[in-house]
Amino acid sequence: MADIVPVPQRSIADIPGLKQVGLLAGVAAAVAAAIWLVLWSQGQNYTVLYGQLSERESGQVMDALTAAGIEFKLNPSGAVSVPESKVQEARIRLASQGLPQSDAMGIEMIQKESALGSSSMMESARFQSVLETELARTIIKVQGVQTARVHLALPKPSVFLRDSRKATASVMLQLYPGRRLEPGQEAAIVHLVASSVPELGASDVTLVDQAGTLLNSPDENAEQAASTRQFAYTRKLEESYQQRIIELLEPMIGAGRVRATVTADMDYTVTESTHENYDPQKTAVRSEQTSNEQRRGGDGAEGIPGALSNQPPGTSGAPAIAGAATPGNPGAANGAAAGAAGASQTTAASSGPSSSAQRSTRNFEVDRILSYVKQPVGVLKRLNVGVVLDDWQKADADGKVTTSPMSDADIKRFSQLVRESIGLKEDRGDQLNVLNQAFKGNAPLGPVDGLPLWETPWITQLAKQIVGAALVLVVAFLVLRPLMKSLTKTAPRRAADAGDIAGDRLSISGQGGNAIKLAPSFEQQIAAARTLVGQDPRRAAQVVKEWVSADG
């Protein structure tokens, strides 16, 4: 008796080895992609915690973050990134441990115990290194400075003045991108270094940035440095006048509706003069010297020595006067002089030859004014001021704004106000021009809108999760489901009694009741199918229905 024996359902064991390995690899890849998508949608955004760290600093920062249990990523440039929600916590924890710190040690080098037997040269080198490092750390605190290096040249002290040398210093600054130092900041850094080192003057400090630009001029009298200072002073003076005019007029006209321009003509000529003036009307006696000399002739011998010259002359024929002095009796004249002044004068006049000389020297102090005048550098010679005012704006009851030009009286009033506020002088040649002109594009700005809803952080995070979930579903339905369906799909059956024809085999009963299975030919399968349809049409219809449903 011949039977049609149905073949069992198809399983993974029935698939060839290479195809089985490929299917397993595809399933594993799909599962890995799904897991990655889930992690990506749930992952956090990382931001840079510290950038451009050295290898030593990066290692210290990573060790501290690992000990604190904070996730991090190390970029190829050396920057350490942490989740956005952990930035402040990470920085506070690192700051409590003094991280990140520079590779060079400052005061820490001195705090460490020095090796036994260190030479004086090593101690001096350590002290100089500590001083340079501490100065660099202080300079970094200045706004705009990213890193700094300080080099000090400290000569050895000498007891001989001819061998003494001054200390010098060089400072290398690396500024943040797009930053520049103001002149005041440059001068502050120079004086900071000069004040921290003994016998170091500000003119002996050189300041350079990362581009090799000399930020300060050691020679303060250099023409370039002087020109830079003069230009900066002129600009500062002009801006001061402009700001004064705008602050004065804006409350009356409106914010942003006043424009002022000031041009200052400065004289930077250095002038020194000395004046000495005398006033002849104002005199005073400083010293006086008087000399009085009298000479009177007497009875003494005069003339050429000899016998005749020693003899007194004979008496003349003049009548004798009682009490008068004679050549032999001069005392009578003296006695008469003692009695009356007039008599003595007469007696003296009648005496022998006499002469008198009187000299007087007076020194007068003349009033003198000695003045030394040095004109200040940067004398204002002339000001040219231009002011533009917008039209008047008025709002009616409905809130509608109307504009109207200013009258001549208003312009004259504002001109006088500006003239007096900045101290314009006509004798100096100052000029002022006030113009009324309607401004364009001065509409008030509306309120600043916030970020769109789709750009807010929580919407971005939610969108990532939705996209991740959608991609997981796509992988599950388009990759995993067809794979699993192909693995569990059964082969179509060409049935006789069991309804499965494709895998049936012909069974013939032999001796002992054991069935002998023979593979039927195509004609035999067709005949069996016809027999089945003829004997049991309902069953045949069920088989066809199963075929149609299996083929999709």
Quick rundown:
By secondary structure, this protein is α+β, with helices and mostly antiparallel strands. The chain has helices at 17-42, 55-68, 87-96, 107-111, 120-140, 183-196, 223-253, 331-339, 341-349, 408-422, 457-488, 522-535, 537-550; strands spanning 2-5, 46-50, 73-74, 80-83, 145-153, 168-175, 205-209, 258-267, 272-296, 354-374, 379-389, 392-395, 401-404, 431-436, 505-509, 515-518.
Name the descriptors:
disordered N terminus; 3-stranded antiparallel beta sheet; 16 strands; 552 residues; alpha+beta
Q: Which helices and strands, and how do they pair?
A:
Elements: E1 2-5, H1 17-42, E2 46-50, H2 55-68, E3 73-74, E4 80-83, H3 87-96, H4 107-111, H5 120-140, E5 145-153, E6 168-175, H6 183-196, E7 205-209, H7 223-253, E8 258-267, E9 272-296, H8 331-339, H9 341-349, E10 354-374, E11 379-389, E12 392-395, E13 401-404, H10 408-422, E14 431-436, H11 457-488, E15 505-509, E16 515-518, H12 522-535, H13 537-550
Parallel strand pairs: 6-7, 11-14
Antiparallel strand pairs: 1-15, 2-4, 3-4, 5-6, 8-11, 9-10, 12-13, 15-16
Helix pairs in contact: 1-11, 7-10, 8-9, 12-13
